[in-house]
Amino acid sequence: MKTPNIRTKQKIVKALKDYARTMEEWVHPIDKIKKFRPSAANSFLLGVMFDRNIDADKAWEAGKWINDSLGEPDDPSALWKALVKMDRKRLLGFLRYGYGGKSFHRYYRTFADQLPRAAEHILKKYNGDVRQIWNSRRDVSGVREALEAIPGIGQALSRMAVLILARNYGLLGGRAALPQLDIKTDTLLMRVFRRSGLIPPRGTDQDAIETAQKLAPRFPAVLDGPAWEIGREWCYPRNPECKDCPLTKVCQKIL
Fold first, then answer.
1. Dihedral of the CA atoms 182, 250, 204, 177 (nearest 10)?
2. Which is nearest to 41 in space by CA: 165, 178, 172, 149?
3. How many CA atoms lie within 13 A of 7 on its CB side?
C-alpha cells in the first residue's frame, strides 16, 4: 500500500465525516447541559468500565443492570458501598451468572478484583458520588486524569468518557471542549485508520490520535464514531466488504 499524501488523507477524513452525518445513532454535540441523576451517573461509569472487548451495547446494558441490582435510585454511594462489602466469592458469582444467568463480561474475573478497588477509590475520593468527577469542570485533561485514576479505566476509556460527557450531555464546556476530545483507539478504529491509509500499517495509537488532531482539529473525535462503525459493519479482520464500504472511493487498501 502506498503512503497517501495529505490531500488523500483529507479526502478520507471527509468521507468519514460524511458518513457520520448519516449515522442514526451518531449524537451531534448539544448546547444545553443535561445533568445526571445519581443512578444514571453510576450506570454511566460502569458502562465506561465494561466497554472493552465486548459488544458496546452489552457493556452499557451490563452497567445499568449492575447498578439497578446493587444500587439505590437516589443514593449515589449505595452501589459502591455494596461492592466494597461483597466478598469476592459472592461478587465473582454475581458477575458470572447475575446477568440473566449469563456473565456481565468475558473478563468477569478481572472485574471481580477491579470493581471493589474502584468502589473504594470512589467512596474515599468522591464520597461515593461520581458526578463530582465532571460536574462544574471544564478541564478535559483533568477529568481524564481523574477517570484514569479509577481501577479499570485506562486512557482509551477515559477519552471515550469525556467525549460522551461533552458531546451527549454538554458537560466540560460542551462545544467549547470539542477541540480537546480525542478518538478512542480501539481495535475497530485502528483497523480502519491503518487500512485506509490515515496511519501506516503498523501505526500506533498515538499516531492515530495525532492524525485525528491534525486533520480534524476542531473536533478530533468526530472521526471516532464513523471509523468504529465502519470497522464493525464492513472492515472485518478477514474478507472485508470493501465494495459496500463508505470509504471505498478513498481507501488505500483497494486503490
1. -10
2. 165
3. 0
CA 109 to chain CA mean position, Å: 21
**161 and 196 inside one domain:** no
Q: What CA–CA distances, in Å, run from 155 to 21, 33, 151, 195, 251?
A: 27, 25, 12, 23, 28
Q: Compute how many other C-beta atoms are within 10 angstroms of the C-beta atom of residue 28.
A: 10
Distance, in Å, from the CA atom of 132 to the CA atom of 129, rounded to the nearest integer, reads 6
Q: Which pLDDT value is given to residue 116? A: 97
Whether the CB-CB separation of 179 and 222 falls below 8 Å is answered with no
Q: Answer yes or no: are the C-beta atoms of 133 and 158 closer than 8 Å.
A: no
**Between vectors from CA 171 to CA 126 and to CA 56, what angle results, nearest 5°?**
85
The CATH number for 44's domain is 1.10.340.30
Residues 20, 12 contacting (CB under 8 angstroms): no
Task: Give the percent of the chain with pLDDT over 90.
Answer: 84
Domain span at 221: 6-28+180-244
Contact 222, 17 (CB under 8 A): yes
pTM value is 0.86
Question: Which residue ranges of the chain lie beneath pLDDT 70?
Answer: 1-2, 25-27, 255
Same domain for 74 and 148: yes
Grid coordinates belonging to 83: 461492592
Q: Note whether residue 200 is domain-resident.
A: yes
DSSP 185: -
Clarify whether residues 59 and 115 are in a common domain.
yes
